[in-house]
């Protein structure tokens, strides 16, 4: 694998290696990028001798030598490639461009951008244009309306991770403005605030019949997030089916994807509107809505590919510290492992993720429909359904399970009526006579089987 516009290789970490330059270029690039240490320019892995020390050095260089602060915009992690220990630095595109080397300031010697496979110096004109469009209305720069804030909850969460917050924690976590006042990030993380996070539950498929409205808020955002995750875990409880061969448990939603969707909503919400994310549960779906569209410069395609442009780098940093999120940009790809892109809806003002309830169809066969189908189910079809489990069955296996030797009888009295009633389905419906054809129970078939 060779270097690209998003990938940079460095053989080793030496005094002459200014890794900050490469990171600055990626921070200023609209897609961010990756820096690998321990790989030569040809893409051959050589490894890093002292992995832990080198990783600490890199973190310190990036925290100390780059402005504006890039905390929350990078990950430093270890990887093994061809049995060699490699360092992978993941860099997100920043929202406070231009980023620059602290030593040289916002000048042509301090500002870089990614051009092809190289970090190139910025012209003064480019620097001025970027600075003119820099996001100034960020929660890190907004002064909190209340300055008498306490952070006991936040300290407890850090302590649980083995991290003690010292007297400088507000500065280190970027909870103050340049003038030394508590900012809006501090307000969100404080023990008491007016931010209310709601989880609403409705009966049916619309917002007409509200049956539960849980309120998690007025406390540290971390506490609210954990309470929401606990609530959704209860809502995502598994239903159990006892089949002829095994006990099956089915959750309404993928636990991993659901957690990532909720955390993404909290991390990337536009809190300058003073409106937090909301979660709404319907019979057939869960909707997770965050305020604010895609960050500037990020396309939908780049969003789905996992490119990260954190809207709130201070919140991202705290969430990473506390183990709520792992790698930059990993959330959306994890969601897409279980759900397709159609679950995402974008607008200028919000981003909504709608995850369908996998158990809805199975659980919503009405009594009337069930009775109608049951009346038409013959003893042969009942026997067919009773011998089928969760897997896909070739016809040769099912005919043995039901104990029929005459194939036409099997087709006309068992298979065809079951298909007509929608109780079983073909795995290759476009080729009914395929030699690879198999059969499986439908959700309706499972409902009848359980009667």
Task: Name the features.
19 strands; Methyltransferase, Cobalt-precorrin-4 Transmethylase, Domain 2; globular; 451 residues; 4-stranded mixed β-sheet; alpha+beta; Heat Shock Protein 90; Arc Repressor Mutant, subunit A; 6-stranded mixed β-sheet; 3 domains
3D structure, described in words:
The protein is of the alpha+beta class and 451 residues long. The protein has 3 domains: 126 residues, Methyltransferase, Cobalt-precorrin-4 Transmethylase, Domain 2 (2-Layer Sandwich); 165 residues, 2-Layer Sandwich (Heat Shock Protein 90), CATH 3.30.565; 85 residues, Arc Repressor Mutant, subunit A, CATH 1.10.10. The protein is built from 17 helices and 19 strands. Strand 9 and strand 10 form a beta hairpin. It starts with 6 loop residues before the first strand and ends with a helix.
Write the layout of secondary structure elements.
Elements lengths: L6 E4 L8 H9 L5 E5 L13 H15 E2 L6 E8 L2 E8 L8 E2 L10 E4 L2 E4 L2 H9 L19 H9 L8 H4 L11 H6 L6 E7 L7 E8 L3 H15 L3 E4 L4 E4 L4 H14 L9 E4 L3 E7 L8 H5 L8 H9 L9 H6 L7 E3 L3 E7 L3 H4 L3 H10 L2 H9 L5 E2 H8 L4 H14 L3 E3 L11 E4 L1 H7 L2
Parallel strand pairs: 1-2, 9-13
Antiparallel strand pairs: 2-5, 3-6, 4-5, 7-8, 9-10, 11-12, 13-14, 14-16, 15-16, 17-19, 18-19
């Amino acid at each position: 694998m060779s270097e690209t516009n998003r990938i940079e290789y460095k053989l080793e970490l030496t005094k002459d290696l200014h890794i900050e330059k490469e990171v600055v270029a990626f921070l200023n690039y609209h897609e961010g990028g990756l820096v690998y240490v321990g790989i030569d320019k040809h893409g051959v892995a050589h490894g890093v001798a002292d992995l832990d020390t080198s990783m600490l050095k890199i973190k310190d260089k990036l925290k100390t030598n780059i402005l504006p602060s890039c905390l929350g915009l990078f990950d430093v992690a270890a990887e093994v490639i061809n049995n060699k220990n490699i360092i992978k630095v993941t860099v997100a595109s920043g929202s406070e461009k231009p980023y620059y080397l602290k030593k040289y300031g916002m000048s042509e010697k301090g500002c870089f951008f990614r051009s092809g496979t190289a970090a190139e110096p910025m012209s003064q004109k480019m620097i001025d244009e970027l600075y003119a469009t820099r996001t100034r209305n960020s929660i890190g720069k907004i002064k909190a309306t209340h300055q008498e804030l306490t952070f006991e909850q936040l300290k407890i969460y850090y302590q649980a991770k083995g991290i003690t917050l010292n007297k400088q924690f507000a500065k280190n976590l970027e909870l103050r403005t340049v003038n030394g006042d508590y900012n809006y990030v501090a307000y969100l993380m404080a023990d008491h605030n007016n931010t209310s996070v709601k989880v609403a539950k409705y009966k049916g498929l619309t917002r007409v019949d509200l049956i539960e409205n849980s309120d998690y808020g007025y406390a540290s955002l971390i506490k609210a997030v954990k309470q929401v995750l606990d609530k959704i875990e209860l809502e995502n409880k598994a239903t159990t089916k006892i089949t002829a061969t095994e006990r099956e448990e089915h959750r309404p939603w993928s636990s991993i994807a659901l957690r990532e969707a909720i955390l993404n909503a909290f991390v990337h919400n536009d809190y300058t509107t003073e409106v937090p994310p909301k979660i709404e549960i319907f019979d057939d779906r869960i909707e997770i809505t965050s305020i604010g569209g895609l960050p500037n410069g990020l396309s939908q395609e780049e969003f789905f590919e996992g490119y990260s442009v954190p809207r709130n780098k201070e919140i991202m940093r705290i969430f990473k510290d506390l183990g709520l999120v792992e790698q930059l940009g990993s959330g959306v790809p994890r969601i897409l492992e279980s759900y397709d892109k159609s679950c995402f809806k974008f607008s200028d003002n919000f981003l909504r993720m709608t995850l369908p309830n996998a158990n809805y169809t199975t659980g919503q066969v009405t009594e009337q429909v069930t009775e109608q189908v049951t009346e038409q189910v013959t003893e042969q079809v009942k026997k067919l359904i009773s011998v089928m489990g969760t897997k896909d069955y070739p016809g040769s296996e099912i005919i043995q399970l039901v104990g029929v030797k005459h194939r036409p009888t099997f087709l006309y009295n068992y298979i065809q009526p079951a298909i007509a009633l929608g109780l079983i389905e073909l795995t290759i419906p476009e080729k009914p006579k395929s030699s690879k054809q198999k059969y499986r129970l439908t959700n309706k078939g499972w409902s009848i089987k359980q009667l």
